[in-house]
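Researcher: Let's try something more involved. This one mixes different molecule types, so please make sure each is placed in the same coordinate frame as the others.
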Amino acid sequence: MTAPKPSELAFVPFVSVENMMRLVNRIGVAEMLSGLAGYIEDDFRRWELFDKTPRVAAHSKEGVIELMPTSDGETYGFKYVNGHPKNTREGLQTVTAFGLLADVATGYPVLLTEMTLLTALRTAATSALVAKYLAPSGADTMALIGNGAQSEFQALAMQAICGVTKLRLYDIDPRATAKAMRNLAGRGFELTACKTAEEAILGAQIITTCTADKQYATILSDNMVGAGVHINAIGGDCPGKTELHPGILTRADVFVEYPPQTRIEGEIQQMPEDFPVTEFWQVVTGAAQGRRDARQITLFDGVGFATEDFSALRYVRDRMQGTGLYQELDLLADPDDPRDLFGMLTRATGVAAA
Amino acid sequence: MTAPKPSELAFVPFVSVENMMRLVNRIGVAEMLSGLAGYIEDDFRRWELFDKTPRVAAHSKEGVIELMPTSDGETYGFKYVNGHPKNTREGLQTVTAFGLLADVATGYPVLLTEMTLLTALRTAATSALVAKYLAPSGADTMALIGNGAQSEFQALAMQAICGVTKLRLYDIDPRATAKAMRNLAGRGFELTACKTAEEAILGAQIITTCTADKQYATILSDNMVGAGVHINAIGGDCPGKTELHPGILTRADVFVEYPPQTRIEGEIQQMPEDFPVTEFWQVVTGAAQGRRDARQITLFDGVGFATEDFSALRYVRDRMQGTGLYQELDLLADPDDPRDLFGMLTRATGVAAA
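Model: All components are placed in one shared frame. Result:
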């Protein structure tokens, strides 16, 4: 007797990296970034519904492994994600991730998916969504400081959602800039490779910093930032890793996702516990003001929050339907009689288990 | 041009339910329970090494979804597990689970596996390990109250590790008892089906309670428990769910896995915050005393802790080598140049992403 086939209940749809790439390319990167931003915006709008908790982090000297759970009461989601800046030197990704959605009513998983690519997309979609609310009107030029794995996604999201057409790129490693220039060529940007961060920010209304070193760095010093810009600071995202001089923080109005997490991980870890911030979801709902005037410096201290992953997982669940771009994974034991797990096991070989 | 094959780095070994059943049956249930108990004992012995945190729980009116992470500094593990008592009535499992091991140095996952079966095995192995230290010497009779999915595993672990040969079974539903009697027949037990919990505990030196209702229940009342027994209480494992009359707790010496978690989830949630307990790992290392004398009532208030899952994951990782009982899952995006995630995406179809 051969092992019985697992029943339908035992299967969880799984989106592999290969299938995620197919899905993104089928939808189109720009459309997917806009779609993700829409889902993320919807979830910020119903922010108060969500179970929120700072991510659960296991830190080591090499990096961090995190679990980011949340729930809207009907659906539960979490992401596993690591952050290991030194990985790049060993030919590995700094950040890898996967995620899961489950049905709150039964606890059964309903989607497992790669999230390395999806995180890159949702991070960029979030940045652009925030910039849509906060950047000065008519902003068309962005400085892109840090030209690693996240940079092209940031550029395309800002183009699709905010109308950015001019990019000024800088990275401490010119090869990274060259790579980003190649990848972004022919996509409707006016591209300028810059030799310094100072040069990159010339004329830019939006400044994006997405560097990866795990250290207190000063990618932007105080005197570099003039009136009226929107800073999209997404590289400072764990304890001990920041990109901005504290002087910039005091001159800017700072917008964050979830203050208890950002105070640990974001740029504002450099500031006192009571440093004033605005929660971005309140800008979306209208409960708080976004940009006040043309001279204000707005700063998005983005660290990535669980609801954004939840939104991205919802998007994939909805958009993968009918595409066939997933496998059925035999992840859940599903005996005919739920109380008879042991019987399922022994019957699996047709002989009594030894 | 077809999509390039993911490289070796992108693959994570995945043990499906079907392969887990094959692995268990190949090793043999009894040998696997003993093997798991050994790994669990080893990890209790090096308890102080572990990153420990109470599980991260998302409660709803129907049940709970939990993440249980831990790390020994070299390897990181977590389990996803739900607990939905009402699931049984809908033909679903009360508890389903899966788990993951990752390399702390890189953050890369190294094993993904079903853990519904594995959790049943590790829970039973933990109970028997604890009973090995705490049950009265020569104990050969166990009352098994609650004859659901966990019961047969408890029986076989107590047989393999503690020498239990006589089982007295009781469940509020006689069909559950009949099922367990069938599954345990021919396995070297003297089996007695009992009509009441009172009848089940007659002559038993070990009393195991593994019932599943999410409510304050009194499976054992105070006058039922006489001197000298070891109580293995594993059904009370979330807020609002207990099995024992508080009077028993005051007469017993209570042993727990991780007090901050057990005070929330275990039988001792009924007691004051400072109710005295002994941490089981200290019994293993010799730092605390186990059973003192023949008349003492010892009580294991087991709720299941992340290190036990970690031990079970380590065991599977070690024992699956060479068996072929796993698939390679394309879970991690792995571009040739780690900074060029976008290039990997656009090259996946051989055409530029739209």
